[in-house]
Specification:
It contains 19 helices and 23 strands. By secondary structure, the chain is α/β, with parallel strands linked by helices. The strands form five sheets. The chain has a six-stranded parallel β-sheet with strand order 3-2-1-16-17-18. The protein has a six-stranded mixed β-sheet with strand order 7-9-10-11-12-8, sandwiched between helices. The protein has a five-stranded mixed β-sheet with strand order 19-20-21-22-23. β5 and β6 (111-116) form a beta hairpin. The two termini are 47 Å apart.
């Protein structure tokens, strides 16, 4: 069954990553095993410390939730090799009556062509009209005729070709077969057999009869084959010994890959209007056939959002996915759904506080390692309980989880916020926990780094401002800010690129050289964004 992805926001923080893991564990513990934790961006150093500390791996990273070819219920008929006979290919069509075409592949599995029922019909009509069998492997002929070789000439021959003739008794010489390049079919007709062997025709097919003893040692270059089929049926089937590689369509092929977006595929289908399209995997191997019918109802990817409910912060392609649930502690934003969904949004400081409550609601206790990691996530998102978003419920839940996990919250907090930015580029620092907001016609980006020594990061002020200036221009932002939230100072040192008046009016401070210290400001969600929202109305 397709997975249900549980994912936090872009540029995920510790609360976002741990919430995805914890909620997945909760649902799987209840028997719903299709849930799978995912993330949308690079896992930060802080989060890596937490994951390693409690023995967890980072969730699977997904890029988008757009409908792809792999989400379609496309046909998966057998993939034929170029050397397969037309007869064998027709048998496959009989086994799959709903399939209009099958892919033809080379030995390595790569696409060679596509074969349809129409291709086989056109070939049969053309061959019957001409009566000429072009050179084919002898093994192919034996296969379609259910035949066996009766002489040494047959053992030494690999291919045959010629005009297919059913030999009948004739009173006039000019009505008999005359060419050496002939494939003669006959029954128990000694005169015809002798004539064919004397002329050294390419092949003699004995239909529902055995070869008389007098002809077994007859000196001839003719391949002699015996078949249990009657002459009429053998004459029809022998043309089906041709390899499908000769009759399939190989020019002007349009194929798609499993990762192609359905919207792009629809445009191509409308443009080319072929009845069928081969589907290839990442290694260019053929995996199926697509028709217009398959595009009518693609399977939507399913997703649960944790720690956010804003489209700009969510996974690209969310509008094409089926959103099942939202577990969050932020303001309600702009995500819309076509059907009612389960939403749990509570005014607490951490999404993991909510999920821990959901464990309690179901009478489940998280494992010691998971409980310890959830406690760490609460500490991270509430900045050691100093953030204005922190509630008594966060504190009580973190303490309970710490007891289950047998960890010290104080030691855990120092370990979490000790992550250094010294070994990161300015771009990595800025986008470790970066979000964009749209407020009353203003576009802004706000990044946040929580640490126990903001001074070390301030030594890289010029480098950081340069990167922020570049990002502001590329994203066409009115304002971009970097919050260096210092746990020990209980405040935030901000770097910004934008109008000085905005900073002064919003936060009541006098900025100097694109910096300002905001005492007791610890939360982007509850202090920075609300103040700017008030300013801009």
């Amino acid at each position: 069954m397709d997975p249900i992805y549980v994912t936090g926001h872009r540029n995920p923080d510790t609360d976002s990553i741990v919430a995805a893991i914890a909620y997945t564990a909760l649902r799987n513990a209840c028997g719903e095993r299709e849930y799978e934790a995912a993330c949308l961006g690079q896992v930060s150093d802080e989060t890596q410390i937490v994951l390693k500390r409690f023995g967890f791996q980072a969730p699977k990273r997904i890029k988008d939730l757009y409908n792809q070819v792999r989400d379609l219920d496309f046909d998966k008929p057998p993939v034929l090799n170029t050397g397969v006979t037309v007869g064998r290919a027709w048998d496959e069509f009989q086994d799959y009556p709903a399939i209009a075409a099958v892919p033809v592949a080379r030995e390595d599995g790569s696409l060679y062509g596509i074969l349809s029922r129409t291709d086989i019909a056109n070939y049969n009509m053309t061959r019957i009209a001409s009566g000429i069998l072009e050179e084919v492997p002898l093994f192919n002929v034996l296969s379609v005729l259910e035949g066996r070789i009766l002489n040494d000439a047959g053992e030494n021959t690999d291919t045959i070709a010629g005009e297919v003739i059913i030999a009948l008794p004739q009173a006039q010489e000019n009505l008999l077969f005359q060419k050496q390049e002939s494939i003669v079919l006959c029954g128990h007709q000694p005169d015809m057999i002798r004539r064919a062997l004397t002329m050294n025709v390419r092949c003699l097919v004995l239909c529902q009869t055995e070869l008389d003893q007098e002809f077994r040692e007859f000196p001839t270059e003719t391949v002699i084959i015996s078949t249990p089929l009657d002459a009429y049926r053998a004459a029809q089937l022998i043309f089906q010994s041709t390899p499908v590689g000769r009759i399939c369509v190989t020019q002007g092929l349009v194929s798609f890959h499993l990762n192609d977006r359905v919207d792009d595929v629809k445009e191509m289908v409308l443009k080319y209007r072929h009845p069928s399209y081969p589907i290839l995997d990442e290694e260019e191997k053929v995996v199926g056939i697509l028709t217009r019918y398959h595009l009518l109802r693609p399977r939507k990817k399913r997703v649960v959002l944790v720690d956010h409910n804003e489209a700009a912060q969510s996974v690209p392609g969310l509008e094409e996915a089926e959103l099942l649930e939202i577990i969050d502690h932020h303001r309600l934003a702009d995500i819309q759904t076509s059907n009612p969904i389960y939403v749990r949004n509570e005014p607490v400081g951490s999404t993991n506080t909510i999920i821990a409550g959901m464990f309690q609601d179901r009478g489940l206790m998280p494992s010691a390692n998971l409980a310890g990691m959830m406690a760490a996530a609460i500490i991270s998102d509430t900045v050691m309980f100093k953030s204005p978003t922190c509630t008594q419920r966060d504190i009580r839940m973190a303490e309970r989880l710490a007891r289950i996990g047998n960890v010290s919250l104080a030691l855990l907090g120092r370990e979490i916020f000790s992550a250094s930015v010294d070994n990161k580029t300015a771009q990595e620092v800025l986008f470790t926990d970066y979000k964009e907001f749209h407020i009353a016609g203003h576009d802004l980006g706000v990044a946040q780094i929580t640490c126990i020594d903001s001074g070390a990061a301030m030594e890289r002020k010029d480098e950081l401002l340069e990167q922020m200036t570049k990002t502001r221009k590329e994203n066409n932002l009115d304002l971009i800010m970097l919050m260096l939230t210092d746990v020990l100072l209980e405040g935030t040192q901000i770097l910004y690129v934008g109008d000085d008046d905005i900073i002064q009016q919003a936060f009541g401070v006098t900025p100097r050289e694109n910096t300002a210290f905001l005492a007791h400001v610890m939360s982007r969600k509850k202090q920075i964004i609300p103040m700017l929202s008030v300013l801009w109305g």
